[in-house]
Each structure stands twice: as C-alpha cells, then as structure tokens.
Design a protein that fits this description.
The complex is a heterodimer. Chain A contains 6 helices and no strands. Chain A has one domain. Helices cover 76% and strands 0% of the residues of chain A. By secondary structure, chain B is an all-alpha fold. Chain B folds into 2 domains: 36 residues; 56 residues, no CATH class. Chain B is flat and about 60 Å long. The chains are: A mainly alpha, B mainly alpha. The interface between A and B is medium-sized, with 39 and 30 residues.
C-alpha cells in the first residue's frame, strides 16, 4: 500500500528528474546565499528556510518520498525545528553572559561592538532559517504521509 | 435571540473599531508620528547601531529582536501542532488500527 502512494506519476518522468537534478544544487546554493546575504541586502532567515524547504519538496516530487526520507529523516525535521529556536534563544542568553541585555548583540566578544552585532544578527538569522526549513518539511511530511 | 444579541455585539465592536480608525494619520502622511521619530532614527543610525547595512534586517533582528524570537517560536509551535494532529504513530500502524 505504501509503495503505491510513493510511486507518483511524476517519479517516472525523465524530464522532471533531469530538471530537478540540474536545479536542486542551484536552489540550495541560492538559499544559502539568501541566508548569508540577509544582512547586506534583501533576504533573511524566513525566506532562506522556505527556499531550502522548496528545494527538498522538488526533490520529493522528482524522486519520491522514500528517497527524501533517506537524506532528511522525520526525526531530523523535528530535531532541527527546535534547534533553530534554541540557536536564537541561545544567542540571546550568550549576550546575557557577556554583560549585556537579552539579545543585545553589541556585547558579544568581538573587537568592535558593531561587528558583534553583525555576527549576532547573522546567527539568529541562521536559527530562524533552520526552524522555518525544518517546520516546512515536517508539515510537508505529515501531509504527504497522512494518505497511507 | 442569542444570534441577534451576537449580531448586535459584533456590529457594535465593528463600529467602535471603525470609529478608532478616524484618528489615524492619513496614509503616507509625512507628518505622521512614526515618520517623525522612528523612521529618521532608523535611517540615520541603524548601520552604526546594528552593523548591518540592511535597515529591514536591522529592524527585524536588532530593534525588534523579541518580536522575531517569538515569531520563530510561533512557527515552531505551528509545526508541533501539525505533528500532534496529523502524525500517525508507529505503534498504531503496526497493530493494525486504521484511524
């Protein structure tokens, strides 16, 4: 029963498979670019997480749910969705340890306070990105597996 | 009767909300309060204070850090809720329960 659902008509299509194989690295690279570039231009954690999740969903459309679950297990999705919030909260707590207020990035131990603020912002963006990606994929898995 | 009461309550609340919007500044009015002190401060000082040239990111992560933290928590909570509602537990599948 499970095999029947996982073998969608798309899985056998060579066009979808080839396009996905070409596009997937570019999508994932672009997601990382959006994540890192968030401080300097348009972009940020929310968008990057969505693009990363969209890449994995494209992979599922092309190669089936079974293959996706091999490279990104459901346990990892649950773990990463809480890890992102932990990175965010942990950065805030780290600022407390270095004598600032909660989420006062300027107090992080870098030579210039502005630099500390920049890296603090980068790290919380990464946390947001991880959570958004993991939650999107977790919801996608739950919806896809519901039919069984 | 209860429906009519509910309708009256909803209409009154709506009217109060609409009355509240009368005091809003005109859309795009340059003399609006938030254009007179928040926006100039962000445009002039956000790069020195937060270290990032993007004002949106500076606002999101630095000036509105708590907001973004709990936005992330809301997304996390939504994910957990979907897991609770939709995820099939392995034990039930193995023992043959279909619901």
């Amino acid at each position: 029963m499970a095999e029947k659902i996982e073998t969608t008509p798309f899985t056998e299509d060579i066009i979808v498979k080839t396009i996905a194989r070409i596009l997937l690295p570019l999508i994932l690279l672009w997601a990382l670019y959006v994540l890192i570039h968030g401080a300097g231009g348009p972009g940020g954690g929310f968008q990057a997480g969505c693009v990363l999740a969209a890449g994995l969903i494209l992979f599922t459309i092309a190669f089936g749910l079974k293959e996706t679950k091999k490279i990104f297990t459901i346990k990892w999705a649950t773990f990463l969705s809480s890890l992102g919030v932990m990175i965010y909260g942990g950065t805030g707590l780290l600022c407390l340890f270095f004598g600032g207020k909660f989420l006062e990035y300027g107090k992080l131990p870098f030579p210039i306070p502005v630099e500390g603020a920049e890296y603090g912002i980068e790290s919380i963006e990464i946390g947001v990105g991880i959570t958004v990606m993991a939650v999107m994929i977790s919801i996608f898995y739950d919806l896809a597996l519901k039919k069984e | 009767m209860r429906r009519i009461l509910a309708l009256i309550a909803v209409t009154l609340t709506g009217l109060v909300l609409i009355y509240g919007t009368m005091d809003f500044p005109t859309f795009g009015d340059p003399a609006a309060p938030h254009y007179r002190h928040v926006v100039p401060r962000w445009i002039q000082h956000s790069e020195d204070e937060s270290g990032v040239p993007n004002i949106v990111t500076a606002g999101l992560a630095n000036y509105r850090g708590y907001d973004t933290l709990f936005e992330t928590s809301v997304i996390f909570t939504a994910g957990i809720t979907v897991i609770l509602l939709l995820r099939t537990r392995k034990k039930e599948v193995e023992s043959g329960r279909k619901d």
